[in-house]
Each structure stands twice: as C-alpha cells, then as structure tokens.
Amino acid sequence: MQKQIPRFFLRWLANFIGIWLISVMGLISNNSSILGWVLGALLLGILNGLLKPLLVILTLPAIALTLGFFLIIINGLIFYIAGKLYSPLGTDSFWAAILAGIVIGLVNYIITILLEVNSSKDG
Questions:
Q1: Which of 34, 88, 91, 111 is the most buried (most CB within 10 A)?
Q2: Which pLDDT value is given to residue 69?
Q3: pTM confidence score
Q4: Shortest CA distance to 11 belongs to which of 37, 48, 52, 39?
Q5: If we measure between CA atoms, which residue out of 107, 111, 115 comes closest to residue 21?
C-alpha cells in the first residue's frame, strides 16, 4: 500500500505533464488553467485505475488479435470519456482523443522508465 500512493502521485504528475503537452499541441479544444489541468489529470488517473482494467478484460480478444495495438484505442477512449465528463479536456473528435491518449501514454511511459532507472541505481 505504501508504494501505491507515491505511484498514484507519479501517474498524476505524468498525466498533468501530458495534458499540458497536448494543450500546447492544440489537441484539446479548451485551454484551461493549471487548476483545470490538475483536475483533468486526477480524473484521468481515476478513470485509468477504475475503467481501463475492465475495458482491457472485455476487449482481450481484440488486443490479442492486434498484438496490443487496440490498447491505443482504449487509451483514446478513456481520454474521450474524460473529455465528456470534464469539459476542459474536450477534444474536437474521437481521433484527436486517440492522439491525445498516445501522447499521454508516451509521457507516462517515459517518466516511469526514468524513475525506474533512478530507483534501480539507488537500490
């Protein structure tokens, strides 16, 4: 449990950076304040923790047939749902949401890799 709380905050920070990046790229229709990005990152973290595992289990055959590429669609769907629930994350189309999901996924991946390398050097 003690490792999960810092990991949640790490994901929250990664989502915040990803939302900031897609806002700079112009993928979200409403450029909001820092507070909007923080709340959006929190919503994405909650949706990724609750909804994504369920979607992965339900779409496991599609994920297997596409060799994992369907996970990109799931990430975009999560971002699209977050945009419908919280208007500052709204995108112009579903494909923009998929691109935003790719960007946020890459930011999460990079931050996770960097911190795992640092933690393996420490321990």
A1: 91
A2: 94
A3: 0.86
A4: 48
A5: 107
